[in-house]
Amino acid sequence: MRRRIILLAASLLLLAPMASEAQEATGLTAADGMAIRQVIESQLEAFQRDDGASAFSYAAPSIQSKFGDPATFMGMVRSGYAAVYRPREVEFRELRASGGTIRQEVLFVGPDGKAVIALYDMERQPDGSWRIKGVTLVTAPDVTA
Question: Which of 71, 95, 104, 116 has the fewest Cβ atoms nearer than 10 Å?
Answer without folding.
Answer: 71
